[in-house]
Amino acid sequence: MDLIDVPLQPLTAAAFSPYGWILDAGQKPDYARPGLENWRLPFVGRDILRLQVMRYSNRNMRLSMFERHINVTEARHPIGNAAAVLVVAGDLTLDGPPSADSIKAFLLDGQKGIMFRQGVWHGLDCFPARTEHVDYLFLSDAATEDEIESQGSPGNGVHTHIFDFAEQGLAFRVIDPEGVLA
């Protein structure tokens, strides 16, 4: 199996914009009153929403399998400053699987969350950056989550598509040559 290194990069709005949005306060609130400002994000779901807590356990930062959700955006926000590494891939204009050269790795520093656009390819899990595990609030829809949980192991469905680079003899390893984790 060929192992391809993916350099870790900081999470910035510009670098992440093809994949989604950073969950933070924008420039101008969408709604404001004394004591409250509100910024809206374009969350999409076709079923009952499901808010969950996801715990990702420490593993080496290697992966070959990616998924994308067809009918829902997906939001993740850290609990307790939980820093993690998130891997994304692909070009939203393509109908097929992601390309190996499109893989990117971002550091979620524990202060801000993210929300994927519909159809964005991403690693199945996040990787804890500095601890044994990290907890994230996770917002999706029930149909997507029920489909994933009913399969037992990752597989293609109506709501989620899976692509495994291992079938092409490829895997990816997140590296940190710029010291982003420091």
Commentary on this structure:
The chain has 2 helices and 16 strands. The chain is mainly beta and 182 residues long. It has one domain: Jelly Rolls, CATH 2.60.120. Strands 1, 6, 7, 9, 10, 12, 13, 15 and 16 form a 9-stranded mixed β-sheet that branches. It has a 5-stranded antiparallel β-sheet with strand order 2-11-8-14-5. Strands 3-4 form a two-stranded antiparallel ribbon. The mean pLDDT is 92.
Key features of this structure:
mainly beta; Jelly Rolls; 182 residues; nine-stranded mixed sheet
Number of strands: 16
Category from helices, strands and their pairing = mainly beta
Sheet with the most strands? 9 strands, mixed
Described by the principal axes of the CA atoms, the overall outline is globular
Q: Average pLDDT value?
A: 92
Q: Identify the CATH homologous superfamily.
A: Ureidoglycolate hydrolase
Q: Could you give the topology of this structure?
A:
Blueprint (H helix, E strand, L loop, with lengths): L1 E9 L2 H4 L3 E4 L7 E3 L2 E3 L10 E9 L4 E2 L1 E5 L4 E5 L5 E6 L14 E5 L4 E4 L4 E3 L3 E2 L4 E9 H10 L8 E5 L5 E6 L7
Parallel strand pairs: 1-10, 1-16
Antiparallel strand pairs: 2-11, 3-4, 5-14, 6-16, 7-12, 7-15, 8-11, 8-14, 9-10, 9-12, 9-13
What is the structure about, briefly put?
With 182 residues, this protein is mostly beta strands. The strands form three sheets. Strands 1, 6, 7, 9, 10, 12, 13, 15 and 16 form a nine-stranded mixed beta sheet that branches. Strands 2-11-8-14-5 form a five-stranded antiparallel beta sheet.
